[in-house]
Amino acid sequence: MTKVPCGTLLRQASEWQVACSALAELQSLRLEADVVAKNSAIAACARGFAWPAALQLLEDLAVPGEVSYTSVINACGNGHEWSLAVHLLSLMKSSWISPSRISCNATISACEKGQAWREALSLLDVGSCDVVAYSAAMSACAHATHWQEALELLSLMKTTQVQPDVVAFSTGIFACEQAACWQGALELLCPDPVAYTSCIGACALAQKWEMATHLWELLAQPSKLGIQPTAMSYAAVAFAHGAARRWQQVLELQVQVRKLGWLPSGMYSAITRGLGGALQWEKALALLPEMQALGPAPDEIVCGGLIAECARSWQWSQSLSLLDAMSKSLVTADAVTNSLLLGVCSRAQHFAKAVPVLCKNGHLRLAGAAAVAAHAVAQRANAAGWRMLSDVAQLARAPEWQQRSKDIEPLSSLESRGCLEEAAWRAWGKK
Q1: Could you give phi then psi for residue 4, rounded to 5 degrees?
Q2: Which of 262, 334, 340, 430 is found 20 to 30 A from 169 (Cα to Cα)?
Q3: Repeat PPR: residue ranges (predicted)?
């Protein structure tokens, strides 16, 4: 079979399907693409999160090299298949292929995306790792809420003569944010929008509202720091103002965001969360027509956030109306949203009114307290020989009740379970 050098053509393929189809067409013509072309196709699969296709292309190579393995490791990392990435790195070594710094960094990055912090740490080879590897391992620790390990890595970098960059410091600050360690975050602060955003978040979580506001005032004046706030910066300060019950400042941020032309659903979600934190659920709901008019259409994050804020203010009727509107717009609520809604309806003694709305479009994939309570009710009913409604039986069989034992505010886990169980007991009773 004749080998064809078509690497340039495949590198220009914008989609992995196109690259794979081109290889298949060559094979049908009894032509074989060279290794450069196949590596280009694997890289296209990595960009398209198509790790199974990348693995298949690797298997088709007679003698895969370091570049081929690294490209597939990147594909697995993008697909959150960190264990496969680690296996491929091990396979390289067993095939007498010496992994380069690039392939090691790619594997650590894959572990970072999968929050596999232990594996990321085990891959760090002190003395040969660069700042990219350290930052990725720090990020893995931070996302897994192991902030102390992340900060230890930052200290270790200095002893191994690896100079921390802005990304490394920002990752360390993010690790502090996860633990609400605001003082540690301030010690690492550097002139970078990501660093300032994480510091604002850390101060907000630690209820240091004045410090969060001070940092925002610095960041909001580019002439002082020479950097510009990002959308995430606005989201962080909106959360800080909301948690401090400063709803007027949240609305001021909304005006600023609108002037900047930032209208993604994530920004609306941050604004509504800030208003909800200040118990201003009416003002949060008032944003819905604006979102529908200006776009983008409210998604499950925004709608779920609005339901959550109404639930936190014990507005069960508004929560149910929003869920119904989501169903009509073909927007699916997640399990946490459903559990919150059932919790607030239970507390308001309107548990029975929530079930028909949840049943309407398959919303009975419930989490935490709701499913546990339903399971307890079903067990009692079966023991007493009572006939339960089919909806209760469906709740009782839901696998989520075993997997999720915690829910979130407005009710604590134990209080919510007891409330829901009592409400369900009253609602259905003896049949």
Answers
A1: -115, 125
A2: 262
A3: 65-99, 130-164
CB distance 367 to 404 below 8 Å: yes
List, in sequence order, every residue forming a beta bridge with 2; answer none if it has no partner: 31
Give the pLDDT confidence of 337-379 residue by residue, as tens digits. Answer: 666 666 666 665 665 666 666 655 454 444 444 544 554 444 4
C-alpha radius of gyration, the chain, whole number:
26
Give how far the C-alpha of residue 425 lies from the chain's centroid of Cα atoms, to the nearest Å. 36
> What CA–CA distances, in Å, run from 383 to 38, 292, 299, 377?
63, 49, 42, 10
- Reported as type and span, the H/E element at residue 67 is helix 66-78
Per-residue pLDDT at 253: 78
Handedness of CA 276, 279, 280, 286 (dihedral sign): positive
Percent of the chain scoring above 70 in pLDDT: 55
Q: What is the mean pLDDT of the chain?
A: 73
pLDDT tens digits, 378-430:
444 444 444 444 444 444 444 443 343 333 333 344 444 444 444 444 444 43
Specify the pLDDT at position 275: 65
Q: How far apart are CA 11 and CA 38, in angstroms?
A: 10
C-alpha separations of 307 from 297, 341, 362 in Å: 16, 7, 17
CA distance 76 to 72: 6
The tokens for 338 are 């459903």
pLDDT value at 201 more than 80: yes
Residue 28 neighbours by CB under 8 Å, 6+ apart = none
Residue linked to tokens 């919790």: 343
Instruction: Give the three-class secondary structure for 296.
Output: coil
**Is residue 221 classed exposed, middle or buried when 0-12, 13-18 and 19+ CB atoms within 10 A define those classes?**
exposed
How far apart CA 307 and CA 340 sit, in angstroms, is 8
Q: What residues form DSSP beta bridges with 3?
A: 32
How far apart CA 22 and CA 40 sit, in angstroms, is 11
Could you count the other beta carbons within 10 Å of the beta carbon of residue 213? 19
49 closest CA partner among 16, 18, 12? 16
CB neighbours of 252 closer than 8 A, spacing ≥ 6? none
Q: Which residue has the tokens 């941020």?
A: 253
